[in-house]
Automatic annotation (TrEMBL):
<feature type="domain" description="PORR">
    <location>
        <begin position="32"/>
        <end position="361"/>
    </location>
</feature>
<dbReference type="InterPro" id="IPR045040">
    <property type="entry name" value="PORR_fam"/>
</dbReference>
<dbReference type="Pfam" id="PF11955">
    <property type="entry name" value="PORR"/>
</dbReference>
<dbReference type="InterPro" id="IPR021099">
    <property type="entry name" value="PORR_domain"/>
</dbReference>
<feature type="region of interest" description="Disordered">
    <location>
        <begin position="379"/>
        <end position="417"/>
    </location>
</feature>
<protein>
    <recommendedName>
        <fullName>PORR domain-containing protein</fullName>
    </recommendedName>
</protein>
<feature type="compositionally biased region" description="Basic residues">
    <location>
        <begin position="402"/>
        <end position="417"/>
    </location>
</feature>
Amino acid sequence: MLFKPHTISSQILSNYLNHLRFISSLKVVWRKDPELDRAIENDKRFKLCARVVREVLNEPRHVIPLRYLEKRRERMHLKLRVESFLNHNPGLFDVYLDRIKPRTEPVRFIRFSAKLQNFLEEQKRIYQKNEDLIVAKLCKLLMMSRNKVVSADKLLHVKREFGFPDDFLVDLVPRYSNYFRLIGSPGEGKSFLELLNWEPKFAKSVIELRAEEESERIGIRVRPNFRVQLPKGLVLKKDMRDWVRDWMELDYVSPYEDVSHLEQNSREMEKRMVGVFHELLSLSLYKRVPVPILGKFCDEYRFTNAFSSVFTRHSGIFYMSLKGGIETAVLREAYEGDKLVDLDPLLEIKDKFVELLEEGWRQRAEELRLKQEKIKRDMENSATKGGETMSVEETNMDCRRHVDRGRRRAFKSRRKY
């Protein structure tokens, strides 16, 4: 059987090529957003503590010799020594003596404190309470993909970005066999998670749901579209303003819509790609995801090789942070200043963990205060016993010198985080 070759009119081809040339010529100056960078920085210490906890959690019986953990500092991105980390974050671990092998000298081990054990139990309850949300997120990730199939290993890599439990592939997925089928064994590089049944109630994006809510509220149909919030001080050039205006006038393309008929480099495909990124960031816990992680899904979501330029070209929708030397895509509308306002229910886990950390920090601050008061009393007593009664001013000044030295040491330790 002979097939008639597909033909394209010269006018369509000319318009298509002109569009490509115009897109490539558009230049948007990247502008630093200190508030959104600060939002990333604010989570730095919390995430570091969480990494150390996960490292111990992966050990048999959840215990590890202190010196073994010390050798993993680089992997955990821990700049200060483990012993200093434990001193700065009391309440996470208990230190005790045990033998690595029989008939060897006892060495220091660490294990979870009772408070951390209680937190881990609370975390399980929060996951159970939000299981429907986790299933919906997983379905949506598969429904947006090209063939409704995504690499299971890639999903494992992004589980913390979307708030999935560590064991979601072996525990949650088998219990929802009406939605999912796991092919192969995760960890071997050739395992996939397949969507078995399309769920219409999950096939609406955040933007579409928002438009429906506004339509019901005001009684007039509202077109689904993106919210644009240009950063302070950013002024677009005329050609870029015209392009953005025309692009915004295009019909919204749902990330759950079949786009196999669209050309990869068309304006409509870019509209769809921006919609996919918007939905992915909306599904994430912090409404931000490192760009290298998004890049792992180019095949599944039909992203172009130069997909990261979307975040600067559409700087009123996204912000590309360079904080920490890592490109991170941030959804602007989810933040007010440096505060995340679009809160995921699974962030309750973070809130509980931060409460535990802050309790330990308060405990350490109180211990330092009592220690400083003892130093002051000892100095006053020694001065009196020596027959050289110091004035109040001299005593306070000498005490302040001790306190300042302690603060400088503490400051140097904090800088190592």
